[in-house]
Write a structure and sequence with these properties.
By secondary structure, the protein is an alpha+beta fold. The chain contains 14 helices and twelve strands. It is 49% helix and 18% strand. The chain has a four-stranded mixed sheet. A hairpin with a 2-residue loop joins strand 2 (39-43) and strand 3.
């Protein structure tokens, strides 16, 4: 049993009956260990060493083993393992073959065929897990409201690339794949802009701008004035010199931070930029007021840039008319 305990220690305290048999431990020994309370049966052929306390990871690995040879953590459970928004830990969510689908009250099971196990399933903490692109498609299917946050988070942390997600969708995102159409639209939008967001709140603001029909900004805009670097904005429209910034409580509080922000924004103003500040309550309310302010400023800036050109054309026409009359 010592060898079995060492084997299970590397697998969140779990083992399967065939693992014990491979180590020369008979089913009779397993039955005696169960009666002594040394091991606990979790499901068909899956056991946990009683000395190892259960965790959400051990429950998830047990669910995968109960789901069959090809089962793996997916959707919200995979998001939790990858550290993506939308993840949950209170239930195990797996994908498995139809004929080995796990029947258990604490398990949410999905079915999906046509996967390439080498490309679409990875090991995370010793648990077979959906790859990041497959996890993103799963999230788009079951919790579409966080799909964009999860995609941006994965890109920011370099867990995947737009090219990898696009390749995955070309391979597995055909008609009938839940979440594929939504994820494809998000990838298309993401390919049309530059830069990445630094936080989930910035991503929420970007999504709000899109919902309000405002033309998409560049992100992480670097501002220069007279050849010198002035600062970087969370997003903006360089042609109109309009930008926005999300002010979090973490990085924009305290006397020193306030003074630094003030000096930096004075330099941005001197460079001709108008910067709108957005805070968390704005986004919790859907970002309507912030988006309307940005839309108004953009429209005014565009009108202001057109007016001198129109006046120049009118003045030139007047001079030409006077010259012709003389």
């Amino acid at each position: 049993m010592y060898r079995l305990a060492a084997f299970a220690a590397a697998r969140h305290g779990l083992f399967q009956i065939h693992h014990a048999q491979m180590l020369g431990i008979t089913e009779n020994v397993i039955r005696i260990a169960r009666r002594r309370g040394e091991i606990v049966r979790l499901g068909y052929g899956v056991y946990r060493c009683a000395a190892v306390p259960p965790t959400w990871r051990s429950d998830l690995l047990a669910a995968c083993w109960m789901g069959g040879f090809r089962a793996f953590a997916s959707h919200r459970s995979a998001a939790a393992l990858h550290g993506l928004p939308g993840g949950w830990r209170h239930r195990a969510e797996i994908t498995c073959e139809r004929w080995r689908r796990a029947q258990h009250a604490s398990i949410v099971a999905h079915e999906l065929r046509g996967l390439d196990a080498e490309l679409d399933v990875v090991l995370v903490d010793g648990i077979p897990t959906a790859s990041v692109p497959l996890t993103l498609m799963g999230l788009a299917a079951v919790v579409p409201s966080v799909a964009e946050l999860a995609l941006e988070n994965a890109l920011r942390r370099k867990l995947t690339t737009l090219a990898a997600v696009d390749e995955f969708l070309g391979r597995l995102g055909g008609r009938g794949r839940r979440g594929a159409a939504r994820l494809r639209r998000l990838v298309a939008v993401r390919m049309s802009v530059t830069g990445t967001s630094d936080s989930e709140m910035e991503t929420m603001l970007f999504a709000a701008l899109r919902r309000h029909g405002i033309r998409l900004p560049d992100r992480q805009v670097k501002v220069f004035h007279h050849g010198r670097f002035v600062g970087r904005l969370d997003g903006g429209w360089p042609d109109a010199r309009v930008g926005y910034e999300y002010d979090s409580d973490e990085f924009h509080t305290g006397r020193v931070a306030t003074a630094a922000d003030s000096a930096r924004r004075h330099r941005l103003t001197a460079a001709g930029w108008l910067v709108i500040t957005v805070v968390k309550p704005d986004l919790r309310a859907g970002g309507f007021l912030a988006c309307r302010a940005i839309e108004t400023v953009l429209r005014d800036r565009e009108i202001a840039s057109i007016t001198p050109r129109i006046e120049g054309v009118i003045d030139a026409s007047s001079r030409w008319g006077r010259a012709r009359g003389s």
